[in-house]
Amino acid sequence: MNYKVKVNGKDIPVYEEKIYPAPYNSTAMMECAMFFMDGTATVEIESEIPVKSVVVRPLSYNIKPQIDGNVIRIRLDSALKFSVEINGSEQNNLAVFAQEDRGIDFEYENLLKYEQGEYVQEIFDITKSNSVVYLDKDAVLKGKVLIHDCENVVLCGFGKVTMTDTEWGIKPSEKRRAVEVINCRNVTVRDIRISDSVDWSLRVMGSDNVVIDNVKIIGCRGNSDGIDVCGSRNVLVKNIFTRTWDDSFVLKALDTGDAENVTFCDSVLWNDFARPIEVGVELRADNVKDITFRNIDIIHSPTGYPLMGIHHGDRAKVRNIVFEDIRIEDTPGAQLFDIRMANSVWNRDPKMGDISGILIKNVEFIGKPGLLYAMSKSRIEGYSSEHTVRDITVENLKILGKTATTPAEAGLDIMDFVEDVKFKFDSDAEKINLVRAELSPCGEFLLGSDGLYSANLKARIINEGEKAASGRVWLWISPVNTAFYDSKPYEYNLAPKEVLEIDYSVKMQPGKYYFCIQSDSPDVNAQWLYKKLDFVLEAGRDISAQNEFVISNYYGDKEKISLAISDDILYIKSDVLKDKNNSVIVYAAMPAKELPGEVKFSVEETDFGVVPALILGRNGIEPAPQLRCPAEITYVFKNEPKVKKITKRELKSESGIVSVALSELDVCGRNFWLEIEAKTDKVSAYRYPFTLFHSVKPEDTAHMFGNIVIK
Question: Strands 259-273 and 241-245: what pairing?
């Protein structure tokens, strides 16, 4: 344990919950402290880790901790849930849950009380109406709590429901989800803790008049959503703390009736993966309407997903969705919002609905001191002239303290089949002073004798605002480690309509690249470029005469590798192979025809929110921030290029040189796609492979394969 906690001089137990933080190399434990308070409280936290600085999130609480050596003191005037983070990092944080000590203040006919201790059961089945199920603060229910086909039921107390001993993917799926309310009326779930759920943590399904209040949710497995309200009516979700490994607050409809009058409010969300706030997908109802997300703090969301999303491809008419008083802190690379109609694997209905009546009001991106601005552009996109997105109002949207008054200032792309987007703002607000950052190549990318491409790029920084503008910009090229350029920031001080031109010389290996001008100013509307560079091999050259290239990963590990082609045999040379435990894996495919919607680019840093994926859209290459992992590319949206097959061969030789016939790779001719992965102990602990062209999952995804051209 890193922390000892006292409240008003009394020792408070500290417990741990399993989490799965970025960059997802392994699970970890988050320390938590829970206590009851009546009136004020002084929280004293003694840290085993030397304390240099402290931040308490959410920042909107305006908690100013006192630091005395390695002791942190916090005064509370009311019960709050927050994260104490030291030394500028969210790692090794302490989650603090200050509670009002509420007992059983409900009328009931039946009482089921779990005292201190562990209770193990596959399903805790609750079917009696007019019941209270109470969990003592030291009670732990291991299994699933299922409340179904009843009314007037309360699940309460400060104990915990956990599925930590349940196998992930357990079948049937009805055994998943830690707490579930199905086909019920008048249900309250209050004060409990939920951890390590298999699948969604808390689902409300086909129910009416439900209150979820003061629930603390910690999830660490795939699909461990926070709270999913599905096809239910008159639901209030409030005063929640989540740290999940999927979406936090979700509204769906799964053929259990319309979803109407649902409010999520007064909560703190932390997403280690996926979306904090989401309407969709799976909106299988006639109507989804009057859905509100209000007074919510998003304190961390590191993967670059949309922070507020509406994603729809089923039959529902989606109406009157409100995102109001949302404060956003540490979310590098994220989209503020993404509203889109599209096909996906989740669609079931034979017809598609539409979306209208969206209010985005008093949303503020606060950021994190020293954090790169570098947000993905927000997006609104319809599907067709019959399936549109319309009537969207953006009111008082603030980015780093300045108000966006136009789509360009908000970093918003308005795509096809969108109607009536309005921006409203206070007349006295400090407005974004738009600075456009254009980026273009000066001539061709030229292949040199060293096997690298070189080019000159020009950035034009244009002050399109009405005031003088100053700040800094810099060039970013992704993937990292295989491009060579000057990344230092350039200062700009521009009068209205004045232009600054910056010249860059760049060199890079063959492959696919994303170029972008970045800034830490909300004024800058950043532009980007995409370039595909062929890997040209001269047939018949000896491997010893070929150029060396870097094979690397996101973490900065690098090795050298050379390729040669002779008599339709591919030769690979690398010192990696001289260790008998190492190997190279060759993946190959014949080129596939480019089809609309297919992904063209995504790399390791796409998962971390640094750069978006790119797809072949209706109007050319465009960003696709919803594609943040291989599973979404291949399974959810089926965006992967349709190669006939990917052939894999693993090769070893302590001589440092291996070879494989092109026929064994099932490729022929003078053009094919290739990826090479190095298998070494150095990267065995990492989530991402060690590849030449930065493929994240080369067995399944070919979009980042290098385009080999034999001369």
Answer: parallel
- For tokens 């909106």, the residue is 283
Domain 435-533 CATH (choose: 3.30.930.10, 3.40.50.10860, 3.40.50.2000, 2.60.40.10) = 2.60.40.10
Mean pLDDT, all residues of the chain: 94
Residue 466, SS3?
coil
Tokens standing for 114?
A: 């779990």
pLDDT at 94 over 90: yes
Pairing of strands 139-148, 117-126: parallel
Predicted confidence (pLDDT) per residue in 443-492, tens digit = 999 999 999 999 999 999 999 999 999 999 999 999 988 999 999 999 99
Amino acid at 371: L
Tally DSSP H helices, then E strands, for the chain.
2, 61
- Mapping DSSP to helix (H, G, I), strand (E, B) and coil, where does residue 636 land? helix
CATH code, residues 113-424:
2.160.20.10
Tokens of 252: 């769906």
Distance CA 636, CA 63 (A): 41
Give the residue from 366, 388, 387 showing the smallest Cα distance to 375: 366
- In total, the chain counts a number of residues equal to 711
Which residues on adjacent β-strands are paired with residue 264?
Answer: 237, 293
118: tokens are: 């562990």
Structure tokens at 413: 């792309």
Q: Which residue has the tokens 């993917």?
A: 169
Match 């790169």 to its residue by tokens: 372
605 Cα distance to chain centroid: 11
Which residues on neighbouring strands pair with residue 213, listed in sequence order?
A: 190, 238
The yes-or-no answer to whether 435-533 and 535-592+643-710 have a common fold is yes
333 touches 362 (CB < 8 A) = no
pLDDT for res 371: 44
Structure tokens at 634: 């291949």
- Provide mean pLDDT across the span 237-243: 98
H-run or E-run covering 607: helix 604-607
d(CA 219, CA 248): 10
How would you classify the pairing of strands 10-12 and 524-526? unpaired
% of the chain residues with pLDDT over 90: 86
CA distance 300 to 303: 9
Confidence band for 684, pLDDT divided at 50, 70 and 90? low
Helix, strand or coil for residue 652? Answer: coil
Taking the C-alpha atoms of residue 130 and residue 574, their distance in angstroms, rounded to an integer, is 71
Can you tell me whether residue 59 is helix, strand or coil?
helix
